[in-house]
Amino acid sequence: MSPRRTLAVAARVLTQVRRDRRTLAMLLLVPSLLMVLLWWMFKDSPVSPFDSLGPALLAIFPFVVMFLVTSVTTLRERSSGTLERLLAMPLGRLDFLVGYAIAFGLLAAAQSVIAVTVSVGLLGLDISGSVPMLGVVAVADAVLGTALGLFVSAFARTEFQAVQFMPVVVIPQILLCGLFIARDDLPAVLRAVSNVLPLSYAVDAMQHLVDSSAGGSVWGDLAVVVGFAAAGLALGAVTLRRRTA
């Protein structure tokens, strides 16, 4: 793995995204717009659940957006033959994947800063923890979505198939992460499944920032999220094929 080649891949991806204004707008603005929509839904409610749902969705929205964009973008590189040409050069698999992770990680950081600023500064999301820490967790969640998107793209042959991984990889995690029902209240089997899903720990980390009495636990959950992201990149390197199908 060469730092120079890795950074060259990252610069190439950022240049492509910058030229694609629709993708750039989706990456940077969609999570914030969804948070605004959530706030607006409950604006006139006597008891608004925005403060209880908001932190969890700040973990979920960046994860989902980055998973979708990364998996489709990487699959496009495969199907167009760009990946095969790149790997024919002196470019390692980790150079390619880490370069992608750096590029989308920077976009994830910008996305998360905007979403947290809008949610806390404009919409009044009430948290007891540190606002910068909220941003750190949101960035980690988005990077997790990037890593999983890079991994699952290896198992798709078309962009449509890449999108089909959403119900398989993402939606079960949303259902079991504690958004709709506390994880401790899930049936035993589902609780066990929830305990091995990375999004559960991402949501837990956000909830710890709301509950000041559990603030110290955020670091353990954050470590699990980062570990899953690293594992996703490693598995992506293993499954990265040099030839298109």
From TrEMBL:
It is found in: Cell membrane. The keyword Oxidoreductase does not apply. The chain crosses the membrane at residues 24-42, 54-75, 96-125, 131-155, 162-182, 218-240. Keywords: Antibiotic resistance, Cell membrane, Membrane, Transmembrane, Transmembrane helix, Transport. It comes from the Bacteria. Residues 18-243 form the ABC transmembrane type-2 domain. Its main location: membrane. The keyword Transport applies. Pfam families: ABC2_membrane. It is a multi-pass membrane protein. Belongs to the ABC-2 integral membrane protein family. This is Transport permease protein.
